[in-house]
Amino acid sequence: MRPRAGSRVQRSASACTLVEARGGWCTEREARLPSESREVCVQGLLEREDELDIIQAAVGALRDEHSGDLLIVTGAAGLGKTSLLAAVQAAARSAGLLVLAARGGEREQGTAFHVVRGLLEPLLGPAEDAERRELLGGWHDIVGAAVGVAAGRAAPDPQGVRDGLDWVVTNLAFARGPLVLVVDDAHWADAESLTWLAGFAARVTNSPILVAVAYRPDELPDWADEFRRVGDDNGASLLGLPPLTPEGVDTLVRELYPDGSGTAVEDAFCRDVWAVAGGNPFETVELVGKARNRGIAPVESSWPELRRLAAETTGSGLIARLQQLGSGPLGLARAVAVLGMVTPLQLAGDVAGHGPTEARAALDVLRRERVLTGHQILEFVHPLIATSVYRDIPDEERTALHQRSARALLEAGRSPVVAARHWLEVPPRGDARVVEHLREAARLFMQAGAPEAAQRCLARAVEEPPPVAERARVLFELGCSTLLYDPALTSEHLRAALEQPVIPTHLREQISVRLAQSLAHSDDLARAAAIMRTEASRATDPAVWLKMQLWNFMWGAFDAREEGSRERSVRLAELAERLYTSGDRSIAARYVLGLRAWDATVRGEPVDLALRYSDRALEGELRWAHPEWGFEVPVLVALTYMYGDRRERALELFGQGIAEYEQAGWRGAHLAFGHTVLGFVHYRTGDLADAEGCARWGLELADRVGTGTPVHWYAGATMIAVLNARGKADEARALAARCRLHAPYPNAVVVPDPQTVRGALLLEQGAFAAAEAEMTQAAARLDGHGIHNPGLSGWQRLLVTACARLGDLDRAREVAADQHRRAERYGTLSGIGAARRSCADVEPDPHARVTLLDSAVRMLERVPAPYERACALTELAEALDAGGRDAVTAGRRAEEAAETCSADALVRRARAALSRSADAHHPGSSGGTDRSSSLCASPELTESSAT
After folding, report:
1. 154 plus 173 within the same structural domain
2. What GO cellular component term, any one, is given (predicted)?
3. Do 310 and 353 sit in the same domain of this protein?
């Protein structure tokens, strides 16, 4: 019977760290021990029947039903976690399942994706290139560097690598599995692997994957909260390991003192072993093994000798015993402790300063004393011993060992990534070679999608320090390594780079652009624009001047509190017209034209002008994933088409852009932004259900990036607007509270405007005075920034409604008329149709109101604006009904339109108007249920002459 999901096994019995000698289980680590060092466990793991039942049930369900599970084994050091994971592996291999196993290492925690590589290396290492590409699929170039099989062509963001690893492992499970994924000593896993594992393990229950992970709870790092919670509420089986019972120790001691040893094992001796070792399986095995090897009789009188032996197992007693073995064994043990797990004997001997013969002799001693295991590949018998040995090394000697280790690894042809963790332990000495090694390691970490690991290397390189001529470049590289996750820290590094005495001109330009970008991402757009304005004034090269001008214009355009907005717009228009007339097709020129198209859209200039500049900007490549030019202008060009009633072109550009992000591995803020704005495009021009799907995915991606970031403002505001339009008011309000949709609003221009979205929520709640106040503030802010396009800002429609509900009809009519004037100036049918809805809202003459709404409907039928059309049709049906006229046909059209675009709230309003009109004008009719009636407009409605 399979255990209940989420159950915790917490009993007084536990496993012992034992191996399979006669049919019992053994750990992978202990399986490498020589046969004389393998201790016997009675028929496998002692006192672990329940745990083994859970393991067998999980493996059986995976084999028979392809049903995944998550097993989490926790406990202090030495309690048998590794043995239990070995039981998982043995059961899985017996069932013919694919098993991938790895473990964290105390010394390897700083090496990004160390555990991930350990999991996948057995499959990827021996494979030919074609097979590797098949295993990695379309993610080859994104995760190749992380898994150690290919150098990355560009630096993917960390989320892109995690998503790629999700796909690779899941694909393995379906193609070659079912799959059992085993991770031991997860508390020592590197940050990148542990972060990936936390996200992946929480979702395995729907895949043919069994994840078994073991760790010491008290030694998980503080930042690993996501991993610490991975077993909560997802059906995981949580196996906690307490010490062995006295009965279990009694059984174990008698097995370790087999019949024929010459002396009967006394009960008192077994109790003494239990008391001395505290029921810890590892310490019990070590203690009894040493006692037997030294000829200590298993009798009560051996108590004093047991205590002396226990002191030698770990800690100071172990160190004292090592020191008694001589300088050769002690030096080799220290070298292995510094180098870490799975250390080649030759490498350890080189670091220890031993020749081959001396190293072999030292190893024989350490194997005999149960300190190290292996012949050519060395490891400590238990991580507890490794920890004790490493911590005992004097500081000066430890530094020297790390330095020798780094050099030995590089001389052996190992990657700078492997050597980097040793350089991080060596104090700065002004060695230019160390700087270059650390920079190379940082470059490889960036290609692997591990910017934080790169940042550690570059920060250490700065401390070395680099030669004066290289300091600005190293600081620039350090700033770039933190840009994705800490723009504020990036600004600090880049400002320091600009203060260096030697900066090549081209490098200064790169530093300035990145500094402005980091400030913009920190919501300091005014300073970003100012830096670019300064650099433009310094530039002597026309191409550089144009690039700096572009960035100055762009960060100003995104600054919602920009001073001198009108002047910037005039300068941009003049520059764009010169470039357009000159026929300049450089990338900088086309970006300027694209930015001019957006500025024209924002300011509500004629739409044909905006589209003319957009078309010219796209006469060449505008890459969304360009590492130098950024994604902002290509997105703005796509939005220009959306606002210009060119829906298909906008969707085409967004589809291409999102595909670029995914191919480049940009699956963090960039991909979140792409899906979010695509959702907004659907909201404005398509089905609200599609809009909600895209926006929800964009918000999920933005949540992974972090709240308070620019992309989270976009995602939250878009999702709330869509939910509100669909009639999901409660969910919209809850999300608004979570996203803190209230003042202070961000400095950046956000689409849709968060304050306007909040105003719509307030109107929905009937808080008309609060909505009027918010929209009045929004009007001053947006108009002050030159955002005059009514389709872009949206505050006028909401202010009209708020003022009308508050009884201020004069102001409502004034705002509606202004909205209509602006819409006609911009010239899109969708904008004019929406404006006529506002005018109809405050029109006192019922017949004139119907005429305005009919005009709006006919306009909106000619453009891709189904939600706006559904709103106009619903209001038309309500206006006809309120005027005592037959609204059945209009109501049916409204209901159909609202259903087509998934506007649930509008469906209810349309049905209500239809039902009232049917009751009044067609007694006994079926009202909204009759689909046979014509959906044509009522003949009495007049057609607008507006275009």
Report:
1. yes
2. cytoplasm
3. no
Pinpoint the alpha helices (H) of 427-541: 432-447, 451-463, 468-482, 487-498, 505-521, 525-538
Three-state helix/strand/coil letters over 881-928: HHCCCCCHHHHHHHHHHHHHCCCHHHHHHHHHHHHHHHHHHCCCCCHH
User: Are 194 and 82 members of one domain?
Assistant: yes
Residues for the chain: how many in total? 947
| 3-state secondary structure string across 286-338 | HHHHHHHHCCCCCCHHHHHHHHHHHHCCCHHHHHHHHHHCCHHHHHHHHHHHH
pLDDT, residue 48, reads: 78
Domain that holds residue 66: 49-240
Q: What 3-state class would DSSP assign to 183?
A: strand
CA 652 to chain centre: 26
Asked whether residue 106 is domain-assigned, the answer is yes
pLDDT at 205: 80
pLDDT in tens, 362-415: 999 999 988 999 999 999 988 889 999 999 999 999 999 999 999 999 999 999
Residue 627's identity, in one-letter code, is P
Taking the chain, what is the end-to-end CA distance rounded to the nearest angstrom?
72
Q: Are residues 59 and 201 in the same domain?
A: yes
Q: Residue 819: in which H helix or E strand, if any?
A: helix 809-826
Report the C-alpha dihedral over residues 193, 197, 200, 202, rounded to 10 degrees: -160
pLDDT tens for residues 631-661?
999 999 999 999 999 999 999 999 999 999 9
pLDDT at 935: 32
pLDDT tens-digit readout, 518-537: 999 888 999 999 999 999 99
772 belongs to a structural domain: no
Residue 477 lies in a domain: no
Q: What is the pLDDT of residues 410-436, one digit of tens each?
A: 999 999 999 999 999 999 999 999 999
Answer for the pair 766, 575: CB distance below 8 angstroms, yes or no.
Answer: no
Whether 356 is covered by a domain: the verdict is yes
Global pTM reads 0.83
Q: Looking at the structure, tell me whether residues 233 and 250 fall in a common domain.
A: no
Q: Which residue has the tokens 């700087």?
A: 435
- In one letter, which amino acid is 649? R
Whole-angstrom distance, CA of residue 51 vs CA of residue 72? 11
Rounded (5°) CA angle 606-607-613: 105
Same domain, 68 and 196: yes
Number of domains making up the chain: 3
